[in-house]
Amino acid sequence: MIFHKTLIHWYLQYKRDLPWRKTTNPYYVWLSEIMLQQTRVAQGLPYYLKFIEAFPTVHDLANANESFVLKLWQGLGYYSRARNLHYTAKYISNDLKGIFPDNFSDLKKLKGVGDYTASAIASICFNESTAVVDGNVYRVLSRYFGIATPINITKGIKEFKALAQSLIDDKQPGMYNQAIMDFGATLCKPQNPLCNECPFAQSCLALANNTISSLPVKEKKTKVKKRYFNYLVLKSPNNTTILQERTSRGIWQGLYQFPLIETLKEVKDSKVIEDHSVFKSLFNKEASLVLYNIEPVVHKLSHQHLYTNFWIVNTENASGQEVAVSDLEKYPVPVLIANFLNQFFY
Asked: Signal peptide position in this chain (predicted)?
């Protein structure tokens, strides 16, 4: 059995009908690949359609306001992807005159484009024989070949890249790469893979050795950090509130939020908040403060969990830049804030 022939035969029968597969335009392929990093197709597809409607060319994306790009991205998470997307669009539009690099090496130099994305674009758009390796590929190869090398260490990354490269169909690398990604996403799934329907079942080592659930192997994750957020939500008689842009590097850079007080532990006592310098800089002593949520809202990111309290501030006098509640939808905000807005203001 030749691995790539079996895989492509399966793909031609069962491939998913996805809009970015109907083109070899590198702009659309690049956009889809950036969006689908750490994102399921079902979640990413509506965003992709919104983006190509708003930005039909790389020049349109390059000329857009970053705040608008982030607003359209809102809900996809990992916002650095959107900022890098915008930065790279401007570089391609202005410096490269709208022409994408046509090979793996030059594609990988673009900001936000790593080995996987460069391989996908190079193979699909320019027929370069360079193999993709993502979570789906790790899973398929580790199970089929019975490889227990951790996929998140240097040795594992090199081993799987070399193996993937040795298996690719040099005559149709783009189709092969899309086939193995689809195979991992729809058949060789993380949980409950469809082994009874698998064309590789007779030769899969993980199936033979009953190790499907333990592959691929990952070394223990970095310890998750707990952070405690306290948002000050102004509720004024004029139906305004205060939003501030997160300008520092880190999570949610470029997004908007309510004034924030971060504490070392969860706070239930309003006096602790009222005595904080952030509160005093925005509100006078006449402001009343009420905790909105009984239990903290827990928002989980990859390496940190945010325990969040929303404090409602009622006052006629505030020192911050106020925003009309009717205009809040114009601002890009984290999902944590968007969910609160939907509950409290809308």
From this structure: none
Residue 322 CA to residue 251 CA, distance in Å, equals: 23
Tokens 């409602």 belong to: 312
Closest CA to 132 of 185, 201, 87: 185
* Pair 121, 108: CB distance under 8 Å: no
- What pLDDT does residue 5 have? 94
Give pLDDT tens digits for 58-89. Answer: 999 999 999 999 999 998 888 899 999 999 99
Are the C-beta atoms of 135 and 109 separated by less than 8 Å?
A: no
CA dist 76 and 123 (Å) reads: 26
Angle between helix 115-126 and 173-186 (nearest 10): 130
Q: Would residue 33 show up in a list of annotated catalytic residues for this protein?
A: yes
Mean pLDDT, the chain, integer: 93
* Confidence at 318, pLDDT banded by 50, 70, 90: confident
Domains and CATH numbers, the chain: 3-214 (1.10.340.30), 225-344 (3.90.79.10)
C-alpha count within 13 angstroms, C-beta hemisphere, residue 342: 7
Give the three-state DSSP class for 197: helix
Helices (H), 95-134: 104-107, 115-126
Asked if 164 and 132 count as a contact pair (C-beta separation under 8 A), the reply is: yes
> Average pLDDT in the 111-133 region?
96
The span from the CA of 90 to the CA of 58, in Å, is 8
Strand partners of residue 227: 306
Strand ranges for the chain from DSSP E: 225-235, 240-242, 244-245, 256-257, 260-263, 288-291, 297-300, 304-314, 322-324
Q: Is 294 left (phi over 0), alpha (psi -120 to 50) or beta?
A: alpha
Catalytic-role residue among 33, 197, 245, 262 = 33
pLDDT for the residue numbered 1: 67
Beta-bridged to residue 297, according to DSSP, are: 308
